[in-house]
Design a protein that fits this description.
The complex is a heterodimer of chains A (about 250) and B (about 300). Chain A is an alpha/beta fold. Chain A has 6 helices and 13 strands. Chain A has a single domain, classed as Rossmann fold. Chain B has 2 domains: about 160 residues, HUPs (Rossmann fold, 3-Layer(aba) Sandwich); about 120 residues, Rossmann fold, CATH 3.40.50. The N and C termini of chain B lie far apart (about 50 Å). Classes of the chains: A alpha/beta (about 250), B alpha/beta (about 300). Chain B: It comes from Maritalea mediterranea.
Amino acid sequence: MKILVPVKRVVDYNVKIRVKADGTGVDLANVKMSMNPFDEIAVEEALKLKEAGKAEEVIVVSIGPEKAQETLRTGLAMGADRGILIKTDETVEPLDVAKLLKAVVDEEQPQLVILGKQAIDDDANQTGQMLGALLGWGQGTFAYDVELSGDGVDVTREVDGGLQTVSLSLPAIITTDLRLNEPRYASLPNIMKAKKKPLDVKEPGDYGVEIKNRLTVLETTEPPKRKAGIKVGSVAELVDKLKNEAGAI
Amino acid sequence: MTTLLIAEHDNKALNEATLRAASAAAKLGDGFDVLVAGEGAGAVAEEAAKIAGAGKVLNADNAAFAHQLAEPVADLIVSLADGYDAIVAPATSNWKNTLPRVAALLDVMQISDITEVVSGDTFVRPIYAGNAFQKVQTSDAKKVITVRTTAFEAAATDGSASVEAVDNTPNNAISSFKSEQLAGGDRVDLASAKVVVSGGRAFGSKEKFNELLEPLADKLGAALGASRAAVDAGYAPNDWQVGQTGKVVAPKLYIAIGISGAIQHLAGMKDSTTIVAINSDEDAPIFSVADYGLVGDLFELVPELTSALD
């Protein structure tokens, strides 16, 4: 079977972002970009299934600017077989991302789509669930463990009280949480090999999807700052402050 | 504008997150109804009927809703959506899971994790792990919204709404519940605790983590939390993780012990009223958000603090 893994190009996990002074957004000029960390986990999970003989092909797909090719090449260097870039310079909201991915699924007919549970830029946590809805597939979100059997998949999910395991019939959607696996690093030879792997470049129009944003960002602001606190010298002083100054205990 | 508020519950009791989301729902306009989707959750529906401002409570009682799987519950909500202008749920793992499914079925772009209702169509929400906030206006006629519960006060519970049964038998052949491992126990719920004691990797072992933090948490009536590093190291279960990708908490008192304060962690706790940090590294980023910082060896300071609270 085929596994489709959507990947997003986002500001690198380690970058401390800055809000533009005029409130129009986040400053992305000259900022290091990487694959969304949850998507790396998704690629890794797909590759593990392939290596276990449970899948034949892993396809990475990205929706974004020309430079999202780099993100796809990262996926290919990790071991994915081929890539699809749906090229657009517009901001694409999760609902339209899901519509585009549905069109890719209709064409490629994968049995599993594995996505990161959320992108670390917009923190929306929607795309996988939306894709599940549009396809009428079951979803195993926030995956902690994935067990593939003949015609189904058991997904153990991280939920508020602990863990929950659901059984899904195939085809199905999985979204990854942090502890599903440790993504591999691409080795230099594999990075070189990835440059020769097939990568199709398409546009939203090729899939008959019109990008129609529903949300207008009116303003982007810094979070309120906490006022600087103090260092206390001893446990006794701490307890005194908590009791008599903060009224916290 | 009438809103359908989705209740968070475990079939036995209404979770406080629902009351907080109710405050957000109330700000949208002309009142709200509450949906309880579960199995044998009559007591939850009765509790929900007391939420101040609730018009009525819809009790959808069916074995298929027992574990609130996304597929049947999303279909249920969509079947009720015609009568409402907005669908609102707390951003708990349950509704983070289910609500985007509802949104896509309604062809609506969901607004996730709102921290403020500016008007009926304009909301504030965090992006980049809470390092920035966006004010967004939606053009969708119907709104689908999840609420960051720490940003809203709990609604009062002096109401007396009526409870109506909803007859809905879902046809779900694509997903089923298999098993669950829930922590349970007597410990206070992390998301709604007034005091949270959190530990980091500096504890060095699960044994030390429990041995030092449990007595302190017991003294304070606190919930226990952990940094991602401590969870990854196996010192604490995954549902204790405080941070952008774990739980977002805003207790009256948050005590971070042996936690350096990665951005991800700070995003999950920096709205707490009072923050205490105990760390051996005086330059640790956690001190930048702490009201009271104590530099030193946690293996000495934690037992000392525990006994000082007698």
